Write the structure tokens for this entry.
Amino acid sequence: MLTIYGVYRSRASRTLWLANELGLSFEHVPVIQHYRLADPTAADAPLNTRSPRFLAVNPNGHVPSIDDDGVVLHESLAINLYLAKKHGGPLAPANLAEDGQMTMWSLWAATEVETHALNVLYHRLGNPQGAKDPALADAAVAALRQPFAVLDAALARHGHPVGGRFTVADINLAEVVRYAQAAPELFEAAPRVKAWLAACQARPAFRKMWEARDREPA
Ligand SMILES: N[C@@H](CCC(=O)N[C@@H](CS)C(=O)NCC(=O)O)C(=O)O
């Protein structure tokens, strides 16, 4: 049995989307970020990233985590690579070269894009008024121009980052690039990235994840 820990409004969305793509049945345990609660230690607090019961699963205190018949994994992008490879099919690497490319793009998303993209999200959209720093958002947009050009060029070659088809690499990349959507100027300058992300987000498995996310309290 596969258990996925983490609310939809977290990086667990990546794994929940992938699980939908693969048609997996799973138990969803909606662990919420502790900082979204007034008192995460209160007796009646919902299961959160500081709950002892969750820390026993992931001592890092972050979501997502999975327990796949005793295989306990953390790190959203690594979880997705593992599940794709375990279940095979078109989402998974067809050979070692594709495996390397999928790992490369996933690490690229985490190291070259994610921090800047989150700064765009928080400082243009997510943070409350007064905690938004427009200069920080603009600096993040500037830092993302080069990675967006790199991804745009890769998509120009094959339509997808790996193998000329939709794979787990698309999911891992799309879920990180999504955070920068509050900067339309980045997407106007990288039209293939814009079209590719729209196609990723039009997939029924993404829509199913997003609708469940919308049903969760903000
Ligand atoms: N690199 C990790 C980051 C995990 C992470 O920071 N998750 C956030 C939610 S999106 C979290 O659990 N925050 C709650 C906390 O730090 O208590 C991954 O990709 O899984």
Summary: The longest strand covers residues 2-5. The pocket of glutathione is lined by residues 10-11, 33-35, 49, 61-64, 75-77 (CB under 6 Å). DSSP finds nine helices and four strands in the chain.
